[in-house]
Write a structure and sequence with these properties.
Radius of gyration: 13 Å
Largest sheet: 7 strands, mixed
Amino acid sequence: QVQLVESGGGLVQPGGSLRLSCAASGFTLDYYAIGWFRQAPGKEREGISCIKSSDGSTYYADSVKGRFTISRDNAKNTVYLQMNSLKPEDTAVYYCARTPFRCSTYASSFGYWGPGTQVTVSS
């Protein structure tokens, strides 16, 4: 059974850091791209980062480039999103998702999703 479970969200002050984890089960990361998306209240879901194990490619949206870093640990079958210099506009529910295709910002390309983890950036 394919499962993705996010963790690591919480409340952080502006300028702070969080590391999100996406634990995968029922499949191995080697053959799939894993993307991170976020959705703030009243806004569309936004693709912010992606990593594909088979070719090592990564993607970052302009909104997070230079502040967020995506990585994977194949031994733990887990993908991470290190988020630094957090801003109030980063507040959202963060989701990880799986696609058999190349990295993409289109949510429709991703067939399996985790339940999400809330990130709140506020003083």
